[in-house]
Amino acid sequence: MQTKSPELVHDETSLKKFLLKLSPVDQVGVDARAAMLGTRSIKTSSKNLAIDLAIKMVDLTTLEGADTPGKVRALCNKAVRPDPSDPTVPHVGAVCVYNDMVSIARTHLDSIGGKDVPVAAVSTAFPSGRASQAVKIQDTQDALDAGAGEIDMVIDRGAFLAGKYGKIYDDIVLIKSLCGEKAHLKVIFETGELVTYDNVRKASYIAMLAGADFIKTSTGKVVPAATPSVVLVMLEAVRDFHALTGRKIGVKPAGGIRTTKDAIKQLVLVKETAGEDWLDPSLFRIGASALLNDLIMQRMKMRDGRYSSMNNVTLD
Predict the structure, then answer these.
(1) Once rounded to an integer, what is the mean pLDDT over residues 294-312?
(2) What is the pLDDT of residues 151-198, one digit of tens each?
(3) Would you say 121 and 104 are in contact if contact means Cβ atoms under 8 Å apart?
(4) d(CA 232, CA 117)
(5) What are the backbone angles phi and psi of residue 119, rounded to the nearest 5°?
(6) Beta-strand (E) ranges in 164-306?
(7) At how many degrees (to 10) do helices 260-273 and 44-57 cross?
(8) What does the DSSP assignment read for 284-295?
(9) Which residues are designated catalytic?
(10) Is the separation of the CB atoms in 233 and 196 below 8 Å?
(11) Element (H or E) spanning 242, and its range?
(12) CA atoms of 290 and 26, how far apart (whole Å)
């Protein structure tokens, strides 16, 4: 599909005019639809496929001050072989770490047959987004130089809430220019701090207009994070942006998605809102750590007919 409008905005004035034209979000309607879709059940045969798809979509994440090279290598092992006893389990979508761990992750993944697993690095003064432009540039460039194939940048929520939309737009354009063709850019909103669904929709459009490859709910450090309603608003935004421009933008919920049931609810939201094209790791990811263990255990249950012990999975 050809892009219908390659340049929707070109300065802060046109950006604000574009945002003013966005229809307000029906909060009651969004909450009701998200709740309704959350009650959907799927057949057993479909559940097997859904579990494997969810595994492929996981950005296996560790973002702690106590992260060590050993922990990151162990996470990479799990990313490539989530269940060492079952080689049919697919690898995850990516490994997500701080940028000082990118080289360690990339080197280890390559050494264990994980060349197809990208390393995602959080950037631009994660998780606050409060730093000078020079710091944000250096933060991102360090990750790219170390081998990051994906950059998860955070926006400055204070600037956004102060109405400085042009600053947010320019920051994203700048980081996207650093990524170029060698890295995908995910833009993190921290939706728990944006407060309203209207703000989530505005942030979604700013990021997409500025060249983001993915829009992401949260850092995982703030509650609430990836609520079904917030994810629904973002999925509606990418669907409508695709209709407007022909560009497909990915969505990444992160924070609070811990069980197979949670993950399947996300997949239902995707299918019923953005459509089946988005049921692919290239357009939908789930930022998580604990989720992968539950997916593996549910997969074991589907295979063996009984629940497995937590002793059969690694504790991350």
Answers:
(1) 81
(2) 999 999 999 999 999 999 999 999 999 999 999 999 999 999 999 999
(3) no
(4) 27
(5) -100, 125
(6) 184-188, 214-216, 250-252, 286-288
(7) 90
(8) B-EEESHHHHHH
(9) 152, 216, 252
(10) no
(11) helix 228-245
(12) 33
- Confidence (pLDDT) at 3: 38
The whole-angstrom separation of Cα 28 and Cα 107 is 48
In this prediction, residue 10 has a pLDDT band, given cuts at 50, 70 and 90, of confident
Cβ neighbours of residue 257 closer than 8 Å, sequence gap 6 or more:
226, 263, 266, 286, 287, 288, 291
| Domain 15-304, CATH | 3.20.20.70
Per-residue pLDDT at 12: 87
Is the pLDDT at 66 greater than 90? The verdict is yes
Mean pLDDT of 75-102: 97
Strand order in the sheet with 58-61: 250-252, 214-216, 184-188, 150-154, 119-123, 94-97, 58-61, 286-288
Contact present, 85 and 119 (Cβ < 8 Å): no
Q: What is the pLDDT of residue 309?
A: 63
Q: Is the pLDDT of residue 2 over 90?
A: no
Residue 255: other Cβ atoms inside 10 A? 23
Q: How many angstroms separate the CA atoms of 124 and 147, rounded?
A: 17
Please give the Cα distance from 94 to 80 (Å, whole number): 9
CB 188 within 8 A of CB 153: yes
* Structure tokens, 264: 């399947």
* Residue 128 tokens, joined: 């606050």
Spell out the alpha helix ranges (H) of 180-227: 191-194, 197-210
Q: CA-CA distance, 64 to 266, in Å (whole number)?
A: 25
Structure tokens at 221: 């450090």
